[in-house]
Design a protein that fits this description.
Layout: H1 5-19, E1 28-34, H2 43-46, E2 52-58, E3 61-67, E4 71-73, E5 91-97, E6 101-102, E7 108-109, E8 112-120, E9 135-141, H3 152-164, E10 170-173, E11 186-188, E12 194-204, E13 207-219
Length: about 220
């Protein structure tokens, strides 16, 4: 028996999908632009941000990042600045999404304005093996995060849980945690994820102490 017209349409659609290029969401690029800091950001936080934004295009989705002018370290780096010198829950920047996107665990984040705070993944049975690196930025609603001081691990997690409305905080993976690649470069991790390189100046005891360059994963998910 020959296929019905409906089956022919379905088979043709499947064949075309198999030959189609990857979804535009897999495309990633980054530039630096002068973009006004969103009015949703509290004034004490806004005062600490760089005036220019790193604009990443994740397919058609426009993502804007404003990093802090300087990231205070809690202890002196032995060589180059590292995340081990950064206090838990430190404010690293703010983030605006034009469209929805998943966090690194594939959980949906709504369009809006968010703060980004540093946190180390706990070393316990619930988190071991989830990702190759422990460094993450926790994504919190700007309306809920009003003060620039480090929130500590528990405080930052509590804020970031409000993004998803779940028991787990919204997270973006810092991978690679440190890199010599220039800011704006697009990197592909060993897992095949894609991210952009950003660089944040750091200080120790209010004196310049170099900068911390890192990759921020924006395409790709870990199992949850």
């Amino acid at each position: 028996m020959s296929p019905t017209p409906f089956r022919l349409v379905v088979l043709s659609a499947c064949w075309l999908l198999a030959l189609s290029p990857p979804a535009r969401a897999q495309d990633l690029s980054a530039t630096k632009e002068a973009v006004a800091i969103p009015p949703e950001i509290a004034e004490p936080i806004k005062a600490l941000l760089q005036p220019d934004a790193v604009v990443a295009m994740r397919g058609e989705n426009r993502l804007e990042f404003w990093w802090v002018k300087s990231l205070p370290l809690e202890n002196a780096p032995s060589d180059k600045p590292a995340w081990s010198n950064v206090p838990d829950g430190a404010l690293v920047g703010v983030f605006r999404m034009a469209g929805a996107m998943p966090d690194v665990r594939g959980l949906p984040m709504k369009p809006g304005v968010y703060t980004l705070r540093f946190a180390l993944q706990p070393q316990d049975g619930d988190h071991m093996g989830v990702s190759p690196n422990r460094e993450f930025l926790l994504v919190s609603p700007a309306a809920a995060d009003q003060t620039p001081e480090p929130a500590g691990f528990k405080g930052a997690v509590a804020l970031a849980k409000q993004t998803l409305g779940k028991s787990h905080p919204a997270t973006l993976s810092v991978n690679p945690p440190a890199t010599d690649q220039p800011a704006g470069a697009v990197v592909t991790t060993d897992e095949g994820h894609k991210g952009i390189v950003s660089s944040v100046p750091v200080t120790f005891q209010e004196k310049p102490a170099g900068s911390l360059s890192f990759g921020l994963t924006l395409v790709g998910e870990y199992e949850h």
